[in-house]
Amino acid sequence: MALGDAMAERQWLLLVVVVAQAALFTLALPGSLALWVVAPFYPPLLSTITLTLGSTLGAVGAYHFSLHFGRAAITPESRWVRLLSRHGDFLSQCAVRAMPGFPHAPINYAGGLLKLPLFSFALAACIGLGLKSGVYSFAVYEAVEVAEEGRIDRGAIGVVFVLFVLFLSGAALRHWFVNREEAESSEQGK
Question: From which domain of life does this come (predicted)?
């Protein structure tokens, strides 16, 4: 905790986190680990902005990376390419980004392979990942506060409930996409 507290005093380090997270997401590596570097030590708003910026820049980086090198990393027959080819509209992209359980790397690379409109791709990433980062940042920050102070407030309980709803919705949405894809595949096979 001492290292984290020292880090929190140096807000310029958040720029390092943004750059590192963007680089990790660009290369399909786990950039979401930045949550555990930022959220316990910085206020939720600052954490949310940092994580959203790093994630969005990483999504755009992966989009461009896949334009040049993506066919080696993800095939046009991939589940995620098929998913985004059918559900690549702005609101669907926002929903997929906000839901837990949807992997960022294949979605980022599929967006580039499909040449989805970059502005709406980036905006959907920013909004969806911003919502998810905000909820996660608040939950982690509140958990640290509870651990340090030994008290639970209504805000923490509300965030846990929102997380529960997000996880449940994400599982249901993912299940729906998989079932729909399997049904379409079996219809094409007939």
Answer: Bacteria
